[in-house]
Amino acid sequence: MNNKNVNINENENKNKKTPLYDKHLALGAKIVSFAGFSMPLYYKSIIDEHLNVRNHSGLFDISHMGEIIVKGKDAGLFLDFVLTADVSSIFPNTIAYSLILNENGGVIDDLTVYKFSNESYMIVANAANTKKDFAWIHTQMINLQKSKLQDQSKFQDLTVENYSDKIGLLSVQGPKSRNIIYPLAEDISDNYDKSKNNFCNIFNFQYNIKPFKELSHFEFSCIKFKEINIEAVISRSGYTGEFGFEIFVSADDINKLWDYILDNKELSNLTPIGLGARDTLRFEAALPLYGHELDETINPYDAGLEKYLSKNKDFIGKEALEKIKNKEKKLIFFKLAGKQIPRHMQKILDENLKPIGCVASGTYSPLNKMPIGSAYISDSNVIPSSLKNFYIDIRGNFEKAEVVNPPFHKMKK
Amino acid sequence: MMDKKNFYFAKSHEWLSNYSNNDYRLGISDFAQSELGDIVYIQLPQAGKQYKKDEKIGEIESVKSVSEIYAPVDLTIKNINSNLNETPELINNDPYGEGFIAKVELHNPTDLSLLMDNNSYESFVKSNHE
């Protein structure tokens, strides 16, 4: 037997580890290299972990993700220029999904932005892109500050800092997530001394507290975990297509919090979940993954993400996008009748076996028990909306695929 | 744990085990299935076909990876385990039993001496993968 995948262990020594690495080993995780980190791919089974999140709940270590803190009176104005979404105008304690584009309109990264106040924001970036994003954002800041064309007073009250190594990030996802988080967490009271050296204060932010049980999707607040007395930022968000929370804590506290949640796992039938199921879960929900559905050669129209481009402001990449008349490629989703799994970059062929595109993501759907995928159709002679069936060249086998409307899974209300 | 006294292993993680006369079963090891993770598809070899040692006889696909299966010695496929078409996860659940891949006939039973016994295989896995 010969595993044809890239040798996932080759860079393991050079890899970074999250603060929870030893916990993953102790749980018997299969460790792989992902975005420069040694991460758990699965603990026992990708399929079992996936279904546990769909039916109950799961705990993910996603501390590899990056946090970039942007502060100052000009932070909102600056982010509005660097990001595609309206950030300065959203309410405090809410999150915006946004793209960050280069001058050609290509996607540098997709990310979420947490607005603490008009003067303080946290960007949560893909692990593989954190360094690149930080360098890009920092360069834009310097350029704007130096620019003679700009009003000299603009962009002076502004700092950009990479907090990724100081912050640990857990995600609790699944329909039963409330059952475990509600009893373990409590609101920070109104008369709480915000000047104390506590976690929500590590960014040196002004912040507001909202009762965490009242948070809607894409809202966040600061909370405290009972018994272990650990503070956290908690958001109603995730990457699974399920109800869930993402929890930011100090990297020094994350081991304690991981244990506290796992010690109470019976409350929601919670199990630890690896990156394998994180990928199958996000894909069933048709959420994009950078490096697959997105990269710097893909623009937001190609990816069907034009709704995240603000019409109310100027931003980097906007001018280039306005010149793009014809879509160069189009993202479609498909399912297969056969059992072989399509993989990234395999060729899409029309009924005459002529290449018309490439697979973006391909995986197995544990929920539907079949291979599913996404692809970019790049042949300008093909009208994507009229495409019904095609073939995928899976290692020389031409497997028939059928175009479907995403997502493959919708959350139960 | 199943007694694997009569099992012979290849470095590429396939096993052969005698069940009568010159008739053997072929499968992949417990280590191999655990490395693959959840198996969702197997391309089985063709019954009646002859394969040379180290020739590809099929493919195994898990959610995250694809592996080729090789003939550990020169052999002929007598029957395939067609249960694996519908339930490939048998390989995960019972790699040395219900999850066998095919029944085979060896061209030269003395070729087994080229393979490892269970103890040697276990040390091989330990020294190469830990």
Automatic annotation (TrEMBL), chain A:
SUPFAM superfamilies: Aminomethyltransferase beta-barrel domain, Folate-binding domain
Keyword Membrane: no
Catalytic activity: N(6)-[(R)-S(8)-aminomethyldihydrolipoyl]-L-lysyl-[protein] + (6S)-5,6,7,8-tetrahydrofolate = N(6)-[(R)-dihydrolipoyl]-L-lysyl-[protein] + (6R)-5,10-methylene-5,6,7,8-tetrahydrofolate + NH4(+)
Protein keywords: Aminotransferase, Methyltransferase, Transferase
Residue stretches making up the Aminomethyltransferase C-terminal domain: 329-410
GO cellular component: cytosol; glycine cleavage complex
Ranges of residues in domain GCVT N-terminal: 20-313
EC number of the protein: 2.1.2.10
Pfam families: GCV_T (PF01571), GCV_T_C (PF08669)
Transmembrane segments: none
InterPro entries: GcvT, GcvT/YgfZ/DmdA, GcvT/YgfZ_C, GcvT_C, GCVT_N, TrmE/GcvT-like
Binding positions for substrate per the UniProt entry: 246
Methyltransferase recorded as keyword: yes
Gene Ontology biological process terms from the UniProt entry: glycine catabolic process; methylation
Protein name in UniProt: aminomethyltransferase
